[in-house]
Amino acid sequence: MDNEASYICDTCGEDIVIPIDPTAGSTQEYIEDCPVCCHPCVIIVRLGDDGNADISASPEQDHL
Ligand SMILES: [Zn+2]
Questions:
Q1: Predicted confidence (pLDDT) per residue in 22-37, tens digit
Q2: Which residues pair with 27 in a beta bridge?
Q3: Total domains, the chain
Q4: Rounded Cα distance, 17 and 11, in Å
Q5: 15 C-alpha vs ligand 1 centroid, how far in Å?
Q6: Domain range for residue 15?
Q7: pTM score, whole prediction
Q8: How far is the centre of ligand 1, averaged over its atoms, from the C-alpha of 54 (Å)?
Q9: Is residue 25 one of the residues assigned to a domain?
């Protein structure tokens, strides 16, 4: 397995590759600034038992 995964930026549509830290827990949520358009995205990472990472990204919400 590798420790990288990618998501599609909701703002600019670019495919963004980010490093995954498997020691940080099976579910991780954090804010990541898109390196292309600089808009912050809420990244939710879920690690499966097989080590595969499932990432969902959404624009940062005001209510957070
Ligand atoms: Zn972007």
A1: 899 999 999 999 999 9
A2: 46
A3: 1
A4: 15
A5: 8
A6: 4-59
A7: 0.79
A8: 19
A9: yes
